[in-house]
Write a structure and sequence with these properties.
Length: about 130
Protein backbone atom coordinates (compact mmCIF):
# COMPACT_ATOMS: atom_id res chain seq x y z
CA UNK A 1 0.00 0.00 0.00
CA UNK A 2 1.39 3.38 -0.97
CA UNK A 3 1.79 6.02 1.72
CA UNK A 4 1.87 9.79 1.29
CA UNK A 5 3.87 11.91 3.71
CA UNK A 6 2.38 15.27 4.63
CA UNK A 7 4.07 17.99 6.64
CA UNK A 8 2.45 20.79 8.56
CA UNK A 9 2.66 23.00 11.57
CA UNK A 10 1.30 25.80 13.66
CA UNK A 11 0.76 29.39 12.51
CA UNK A 12 4.11 30.81 13.67
CA UNK A 13 6.15 27.81 12.50
CA UNK A 14 7.60 26.95 15.92
CA UNK A 15 5.92 23.50 15.87
CA UNK A 16 6.29 21.31 12.79
CA UNK A 17 5.16 17.73 12.18
CA UNK A 18 4.90 15.04 9.51
CA UNK A 19 2.27 12.33 9.09
CA UNK A 20 2.09 9.33 6.81
CA UNK A 21 -1.35 8.58 5.36
CA UNK A 22 -2.21 5.54 3.30
CA UNK A 23 -3.07 6.57 -0.25
CA UNK A 24 -6.49 4.94 0.03
CA UNK A 25 -7.23 6.31 3.54
CA UNK A 26 -7.60 10.05 2.98
CA UNK A 27 -10.35 10.62 5.53
CA UNK A 28 -10.81 13.48 7.98
CA UNK A 29 -13.46 14.01 10.64
CA UNK A 30 -15.15 17.29 11.50
CA UNK A 31 -16.09 16.99 15.17
CA UNK A 32 -18.74 19.14 16.82
CA UNK A 33 -17.52 18.68 20.42
CA UNK A 34 -16.97 21.70 22.64
CA UNK A 35 -13.27 22.01 21.74
CA UNK A 36 -13.00 20.89 18.10
CA UNK A 37 -15.98 22.90 16.92
CA UNK A 38 -14.60 26.13 18.37
CA UNK A 39 -11.16 25.71 16.81
CA UNK A 40 -12.28 24.18 13.49
CA UNK A 41 -10.16 21.04 13.92
CA UNK A 42 -10.34 18.51 11.07
CA UNK A 43 -9.06 15.18 12.40
CA UNK A 44 -6.67 13.03 10.38
CA UNK A 45 -6.07 10.18 12.83
CA UNK A 46 -2.91 8.11 12.38
CA UNK A 47 -0.99 5.52 14.36
CA UNK A 48 1.73 6.98 16.57
CA UNK A 49 4.43 5.46 14.32
CA UNK A 50 2.98 7.38 11.33
CA UNK A 51 3.53 10.70 13.14
CA UNK A 52 6.80 12.56 13.53
CA UNK A 53 7.39 15.75 15.49
CA UNK A 54 9.92 17.63 13.36
CA UNK A 55 10.50 20.59 15.66
CA UNK A 56 9.11 22.54 18.57
CA UNK A 57 8.78 20.03 21.39
CA UNK A 58 9.78 22.72 23.90
CA UNK A 59 7.06 25.03 22.51
CA UNK A 60 4.18 22.61 23.07
CA UNK A 61 1.77 23.05 25.96
CA UNK A 62 -0.97 20.58 26.90
CA UNK A 63 -4.57 21.05 28.01
CA UNK A 64 -6.78 18.28 29.39
CA UNK A 65 -10.34 18.23 30.68
CA UNK A 66 -13.18 15.84 31.51
CA UNK A 67 -11.66 12.30 31.46
CA UNK A 68 -8.11 13.59 30.95
CA UNK A 69 -7.41 10.95 28.29
CA UNK A 70 -7.18 13.37 25.39
CA UNK A 71 -3.97 15.39 25.46
CA UNK A 72 -4.82 18.64 23.66
CA UNK A 73 -1.49 20.10 22.55
CA UNK A 74 -0.99 23.69 21.43
CA UNK A 75 1.89 25.85 20.31
CA UNK A 76 2.72 28.06 23.30
CA UNK A 77 3.75 30.86 20.95
CA UNK A 78 0.77 31.23 18.57
CA UNK A 79 -1.83 29.01 20.27
CA UNK A 80 -2.59 26.81 17.25
CA UNK A 81 -3.59 23.20 17.85
CA UNK A 82 -1.83 21.39 15.01
CA UNK A 83 -2.14 17.87 16.48
CA UNK A 84 -3.02 16.07 19.71
CA UNK A 85 -3.61 12.68 21.30
CA UNK A 86 -7.35 11.96 20.93
CA UNK A 87 -9.52 10.17 23.46
CA UNK A 88 -10.83 7.91 20.70
CA UNK A 89 -7.30 6.77 19.76
CA UNK A 90 -5.09 7.28 22.84
CA UNK A 91 -2.20 5.39 21.23
CA UNK A 92 -2.44 7.49 18.05
CA UNK A 93 -2.28 11.09 16.96
CA UNK A 94 -4.89 13.33 15.38
CA UNK A 95 -3.31 15.88 13.06
CA UNK A 96 -5.29 18.95 12.05
CA UNK A 97 -5.82 18.82 8.29
CA UNK A 98 -6.17 22.61 8.31
CA UNK A 99 -2.52 22.78 9.46
CA UNK A 100 -1.13 20.66 6.62
CA UNK A 101 1.22 22.36 4.18
CA UNK A 102 -0.25 22.82 0.73
CA UNK A 103 -3.80 23.82 1.68
CA UNK A 104 -3.61 26.54 -0.96
CA UNK A 105 -2.55 23.91 -3.53
CA UNK A 106 -5.49 21.57 -2.94
CA UNK A 107 -4.36 19.27 -0.13
CA UNK A 108 -7.70 19.72 1.66
CA UNK A 109 -9.60 18.47 -1.39
CA UNK A 110 -7.66 15.18 -1.35
CA UNK A 111 -9.48 14.20 1.85
CA UNK A 112 -13.08 13.13 2.32
CA UNK A 113 -14.46 14.96 5.35
CA UNK A 114 -17.08 13.20 7.46
CA UNK A 115 -19.00 14.72 10.35
CA UNK A 116 -18.48 13.21 13.79
CA UNK A 117 -20.97 13.83 16.61
CA UNK A 118 -18.52 14.63 19.39
CA UNK A 119 -21.25 16.29 21.44
CA UNK A 120 -22.61 12.76 21.91
CA UNK A 121 -19.18 11.16 22.07
CA UNK A 122 -20.08 8.01 24.03
CA UNK A 123 -22.76 6.92 21.56
CA UNK A 124 -20.88 8.05 18.43
CA UNK A 125 -17.26 6.99 19.01
CA UNK A 126 -17.79 3.56 17.40
CA UNK A 127 -18.02 5.37 14.03
CA UNK A 128 -14.35 6.39 14.13
CA UNK A 129 -12.70 3.46 15.91
Amino acid sequence: MDVIRYTGGCHCGAVRFAVKVAEDAHLAHACNCSVCFKVGFLHVIVDRDAFELLQGEARITTYTFNTGVAQHTFCSVCGVKAFYTPRSHPTGVSANLRCFDGIEEGVLEKFAVQDFDGRNWESAVHAIR
